[in-house]
Fold this protein.
Amino acid sequence: MPADGTGGPSGSRSLASMTVLSRADLLAEGWTARQITDSVRAGTLIRARRGAYVAPDAPRDLVEATRVGGLVGCVSALRMLEIFVFSRPALHVHMVRGASRMRSPGNRSKRLAPRRERRIVLHWHPLRGAPADGRVSVVDALIHSVRCQPTRHAIASIDSALNKGLLRIEELSDVFDGLPARYQMLRRLVDGRAQAGTETLVRLMVIGLGCAVELQAEFEGVGFVDLVVDGWLVIECDSKEFHSDWAQQLKDYRRDLELARRGYCVLRLTAEDILYRPEVVLASIRGILGQVGPRR
């Protein structure tokens, strides 16, 4: 049997979880035909489709997109890179232009078989960048995601890609050059300073109310806050991941007290409300702003 944990022959390059390799690639890496067959049977190598292999710990989306003969695309590719997208169950797959039909998934392994067949959304647009690791480029994924998501979520995805350094500012033109003219007005709403998609969603609400907003404003002795609206309302967007333990909550409360001492009003929002009850969040922000009157 092969020596390393991925089923490859001893001394060969290990098969990364985000890589799709052909049979020829594996042979060039030093595998033998027998080792490939034995590894597939042992479950240390997945034969996604004829001539295409992935590691056993490959993401499910990558395996399924490879099975049907395509690349992980659109919001599914962004999710693989941990770029913000609103949760969607469907798998988005980019098919090579000219392909007549989607390949049959064939026999699925028990490990990968879902309880019900996932809906697959196909994309056929010409690619602007080179695919990598079984998925389309970040630029292409963002282009497609603008068409597939509500506008506010699409802007949040672009902000997230910029903030994580997965999209360079000079590549922003490539994204919008790949979109129809009706989408060009969205470019002025992009702001890569947002450190979470929820911050972008709240920022867009505030802009829609006609208010001025500053992102990631720093206060001496307090630190950075998510948003400052009209120079007096501080909005913090909290997630369970970073604000669930009491020590962090105590730190947050004391920050709020210090900001209140300096004359700022603090509104603390949860990611769950921002994502799933945006109408309540918007009404709350409008209510606070309406009570104070003119901007300071």
